[in-house]
User: Fold these one by one.
Assistant:
Number 1:
Amino acid sequence: MKLDVLNIEGGSTGRSVELSDAVFAIEPNEHAVYLAVKQYNAQQRQGTSKAKERGEIQGSRRKIKKQKGTGTARAGDIKNPIFRGGGRIFGPRPRNFGFKLNKKVKQLARRSILSVKATEGAIVVLEDFTFDKPKTKEFAGVLQNLKMDDQKVLFVTGDLDQILHLSSRNLKKSKVVEARNLNAYDLLNANKVVLAESSLGEIDKVLGDA
C-alpha cells in the first residue's frame, strides 16, 4: 500500500511511502485483538483492594454467650462475620490481574488493527517534525491542519520526543507514543493513526516478523 507523505500544514510533500504488506495488509484476527486488549486492561488494574478478615479484626476472642439455651443462634467471639464490625468472609485481597500473552499473539493483534485501519483509510503518514519547546497550541494547530481536531488521534514517532509528548499531553483526544511501545488498545481506541516517517522502519522491525 502506498501513501502520500503529508506536512504539518496538511499538504502533500510530493513524496510517498510504501507500507509493508506484512504489517498493513494481513487478514485480521479478531480473537488475537480481543486477547491483547483484555491483557492491556487487566494490567491497568491496581489489584490493591483489601478487606480485613476475622483473624485481622482487633477484639476479644472470648465467647460472648453460652452455646445452648439462649433461643438464638450460637455465636463465638465478637469478631464473628455475622456481627456488625466483624471480619469479612472471603474479602478481596491484593492480587495481580495480569496474565501472560505470547509475543506473537500481541504482534498479530497490532498487525490486525493496523491492517483494518489501513483498509478504512484511517492511517496518515506525516513528515517528521518537532517544536522548539512544548506548546499545546502548536500541536492543536497541526491537528486542525490535518482536519483531525475533533477525532481521537494516535501519533506514532520513531524515537521518544519529549517535546511532542508534553505538547499533546493536555489534549484529551490525542496521544503520542513511540513505535516500539505501540499497543493494541491505543490503536483500537484511535479514530486516526498518524505515523511519522521515522516510525515506519521501527514498526517494520517490531511487527514485521510473522
Number 2:
Amino acid sequence: MNTRIFERRYLFTGTLALKTGLHIGSGWAVGTPSDSPIVRTPDDKPFIPGSSFKGAFRSTVEKLTPATGLKSCRLMAGQGCPGAQGEEQQAFNKKREKKKWSGEALLAQLEEKLCHTCKLFGSPYRASRIYFSDLLPPDEDDLASRMVQIRDGVAIDRDSEKAVDRLKYDYEVVAPAQTFQLQIFLEDPSPTDLALTSLGLVEFISGLAYLGGKRSRGLGNCQIQKPAMYCLDLATGNETERAERLCAYLLKKTPAEKMAPVEDVSGFLERQIKTLPIFNGENHAKATGE
C-alpha cells in the first residue's frame, strides 16, 4: 500500500470582516434573554466555529466547481460519487466487501470514483486535505462581547402572506463591522485541490460569499481582508535545502519564520484558478494533472 509523504503545506490567514449581521445559533446559552442566542466563547465573546466556516466555504466551492469543468456531487445522491449518502455509497461499500480490495486497490477506486470536492473536503473514505480553525475576535478586541444585537422576527403565514398572531420571536446577531481571525491549512494538495481552494478564497476576498443562518434576511455577508499566505515546501530543492526548511518549520514560532511567505497572494490565486480545465480547453485528465 502506498503511503502519503508529507511534502507541502499552505497556510492562509486574514481578517474576516462582517459586512452585515451574522447569526450562528448555539441553541442554548446562559445569561441571554433571546429566543435564539449566538455561539460564544467562555469569556462571552462571539466566534465562528471552524465547522460553520468550512460548511460555507465548501458550499461556495461546490457551486462553482461544475462550471470549471470538474465534478462535484454537492453531497447529493445520484451524482455518481460514493462520498454522498445514498445508492452510490451503498453500492460502493458492497463492492468493496465483495472484492476485498487491498489498500492500494481501494485508493485507486477512490481516486476514480470520488468527485473533486469530496477529495478536497473529505468523505467517509478519505480525510480532508483542508482544515479550518475556529475564527475568534482579535486578542486586543475588548468590545467584541458588546457587538451583539437582538433583532425581532415574526412568523409569516405563507398563504395569506401576513404575520401570524402571537408568533413573534427574537434572535441574536453579531453586529456588522465585527472582525475575526482566519486560519486555513491545506495539506499536500493536488493541483486541483489548490485551484478549488483558490476559487473559494477569491469569492470570500471579493465579498461575494455568505456565512451562517438567516441569509435570506440579509445576514451573513462577509469579506476576507488583509489576506496573507505561507508555504512549506519539502518537495523541491536539494536535500540540504529541504532539511533547512524543515528545521525552520519545527523550531521557529511565527508563520513568517516557519514558512515562506507568498508575496503576491492575488497573483498566486489567479495562477491556480487558470489551471482549471475551463481556461485551457484541454481534456480533464491533462488539465488537472490527475
Number 3:
Amino acid sequence: MAFNPVRRVRERSFEVPVRAELDEVLRDLAGLAPSTTTPYLTVSLDWRPSGADPEYRAATQQFKRESARLHQQYWPRGGVYDSLGADILRIRSWLTNDVDPSTKGIFIVANHEEGVFETITLGMPLQNRIVAGPVPALLPLARLDEDYPTYAVLVADQQRARVSLITQEHRVEELELTSSDYPRKQQSGGWSQRRFQQRADERLWALARQIAAATDEYLDDQGVDMLIIAGDEVITGALEKVMPDTVRERVAATVRLDVNATIEEIIAATMPLARRDEARREQATVDTIADLAGQGGRVATGSDDVMDALSVGRVMKLVLLEDFHEDGWADFANGRYGVGLPNDVFDGWSGPFEAAPIIVEEEMVRLAIATGAEVDVIHTAVPVEAMDPESIPGDGEIPRSDAAMVLDRFGGVAAILRY
C-alpha cells in the first residue's frame, strides 16, 4: 500500500501531584544503611478529608497522638529521643505547609541523625501507621505499588488512537496517533463505490497495524506490561487480528469506550479491570509456588527458609499474605536474620553480634527490594464484587480467597528462587 494512514504522532507528559515511579523510590529507601543507634521513623497516612470539612483530616490527629506516644517511650533525653523529636516536628511542619490538596496518601521516611527525610505523595490512600525501627518499613508502599501497577489504555477509532499510562488513578503519559482522511469519497455507485470500499478496508487494516506497532514500541519504552483496549467494534476487532504477540500477551481486557471519553471516564471504566487482572496474576503466582513446592523445585516456604534465601540474594519473587506477621531479629553487621527472640537463636553460637528487633515481613520486603526481587502481597479476602450475594455469610465475614488458602499451607510466606 502506497500511503501512510497515520498523519501525526505525538507524545505528552502530564504534571501530577503524586510520585509515579514508586519502584525507584523503593529501591532507594531499601538501600539506606541500617541504623541501630537512632531509628528510622516510617509514616503512612490516609490523607483524604474526613467528614464535611475538606480541611479536616483524621490522619493529622492520629499522627499527633501516635508520634507523641512513641516519642515518650524513649524518655529521658538521649540520641534516640532527640532524633525522633526532630523528625516529628519536621513531619508536622511538612504536613501543615507542603502537601498538595489533591493528595490521597502520604508515605514518609525520616531519620534526623542520618540526614534522611523522604516524603512521597500518592494518588491512593494508605492505612494510618507509624513505625520506628533500624530500617524503613516499606511494606505499605510496596503493597500499593503492587496493587496499583501502572497500566496502559489504548482508546481508538478509525480517526484517532490514544495510549494513556495510568498510575494511581492519574494519567502520567500519553501517545496520540491521528490518521489521515484518505480515501476521500467523491462519488457513489458502481465501480467507484467498490473501489472506495476496497481502499477504505485497506486503510483500516494499515491503520490497525500501525497502531499495534506503535503501541508495542511505546509499552516497551515505558516498561508497562498491562494493556486494556477500548474503542468501537470496528477498530478493536481489527486490532485483535493484527496485533503482535508481544502486545497480545499484555492485554488484560477489551471494552467498548468512545475515543472522546474524558480521562476520568477512562480511568473509571478501566481501573476495575486492571484490579481484576492483578488478582488473576496473584492466583497464577500462588499456583506456581504450589506446583514448584510439590515437585521439589526452586521455591522456599515458611519464614526461616524464606529469610535465609533473602539474606543471600537467592529470591526472584517474594510472595506473602497481607495478614502475615511475625516478630524477629537482625544482626545487620553479620548479615544474620531470624524469627523469634535472638537469645534463643544465638544460644551456643560464638562470635560478636548486635541483634536488633525487627518486623519480619518488613525486613523480608526490604531485602527483596534491595536484591532486585519482585514483591507480591496476596489479598486474603475474596473481592466483594466477585461474590454471589447469597454466598456471603450471615455474619458478614468475607471468606478467604483461593490464593490465600493455598499460601496458608506454607505458613503465609514463600519465595520463588533464582537458583
Number 4:
Amino acid sequence: MAVLGLSRTGLAVAKALINGGASVVAWDDNEAARETAELAGIPIVDLSRRDLADLTALVLSPGIAHTFPTPHHVVSLAKACRVPIWGDVELLGRALNALPASSRPKVIGITGTNGKSTTTALVTHILRSAHLDAHSGGNIGRACLDLPPLRQGQFLVLELSSYQLELSCSLRCDVAALLNLSPDHLERHGGMENYQQAKAMIFANQNPTDLAVIGADDAPSNVILSDVGDGPQQVCAISTSQVLCSGVYVLGAKLMDGRGSQAREIADLAQAPGLRGQHNWQNAAAAFAITSHLGLSDQQIANGLYSFAGLQHRMEPLGKLGPILFVNDSKATNIEAAATALSSYSNIYWIAGGRAKAGGLEALRPYLPNVRKAYLIGEAAKQFDEELKGSCPAKRCGTLEKAFTAAAHDALQSSMPDPVVLLSPACASFDQFTDFEARGDAFRELVDTAVKQLATRPVS
C-alpha cells in the first residue's frame, strides 16, 4: 500500500496500515511532513520515482486532487498502472465490512456544505449525555483511522467531506445525513453536478434498517431527497422553513417531529444557548432525527440540545472588551456560512477575506445593513473591497492582526450599542494559515491579548 500526503489523515492511515501488518510506503511533497512521518517509523519513498504497478492501492489525503483541476502527478502514474485510488473512509468502510454483525459499531455519517461540524459535535454530545460510547472524527477532530478500536456498542459519528466521500464506495452508514448543498469546492470537483454526486455517496450501501436524513430547504438537496426516496433505506426530511407532515422541522424556534399521527414539540431552541440562529436549528433538526433513530428518548435528546455549548470557530463568542463582543466564526469558509453570522448580529465590525471561492459577495447583500465596516484580509481583499463599494465602508488591512486592531479601535470609538467584532471570512484560509482552525486560534490570541492588556492597564 502507498500513502500520498502525510498530514493528520495521512499519518493516521499509514500508522493504521502498519499496525495492521501491511507493507507501506509513503510520500509527501512537503519535506517537514516527510521528516515527521519518518520519526514516526513510516517508510518514506518518492512515489514519483517508484514503479507503482505492485501496489494494492494508493491512499490519498483528502486535500490532494485526483481528478480536478489537475491530478497530482503520482495519482496520474497510479492510474496508468491501474492502481485503485482510495481515501481513508474507504479503508474504514472495508474494515467495518470485515466485522461480523455482532461486533459492528453504529456508524453515523454527516455531510453538507455548511453545518456538518456543528451537527457532528452536537450528535456526539447528545449520545454522550445519554451515557453512550460515542466518538467523533473524520473531517473534524480525529482522523477516521485514529478512532478507538471498532467494537459493538460504539457510536462513530463521522463528519464526511466531499473529498472523502468521492473516494469511498464501501462505507455503509446506519444513519447518513445531508444537511444542505450550495456551490463549494467546484474547482476540485469540476462543477456542481460532480460535487452533488460526491455528497450523495454518503447514502450508498444503506439497507432497509438504515436512515437517510436530508435537508429540504435547498434545490440541490431536494434532488437528492427525491432520488434517495426510491432507495431501500428509510428517509427523514428536515426543514427550518416549512412544516413537514412526515419529517422533522423547526417552527418559530420550536423543534417539531411531524412524523406520526400528530406533530409533537421536542424542544424550544430559544432555550438552547449553543444553537443560536436558523442554521443551528437545521443542525438541531438533523441531530434529533439521527439520535431518535438510534433509540434515544425525546427527553434525552432535548437535554442534550439544551446543554450543548457550541463548536469552536463557528459563531464562537470569545468574550468582551468593554462593550465589544468578539465572535470567532473562522469556520465560515464560504458565503453561505458567513451569511448566517451576518444575519445573527447588528452593529458588526466584520473581518473578512482569505482565498476567495466562486460566486463573490452577492449573496451577502441582504445582510450588509448589519455591517458598520468591513476589514479585509488576504488574497480576496482587493476583490471584496471593489464588491462592497456603495454597500458598506471597507478597509484593506492585509493581515488578521491589522484588521483586528482597526476593527477593535473603530468599535470602541463608535457610539453603536452592543458592537460586535466578527471574524467570518467567507473564504478559505490557505493563503495565510494552514487551516481555518489556525486562523481562528490566531484571532482568539489577539482577543486574549487585548483583554489582558486592558485588565493590567493602571487605573488613572
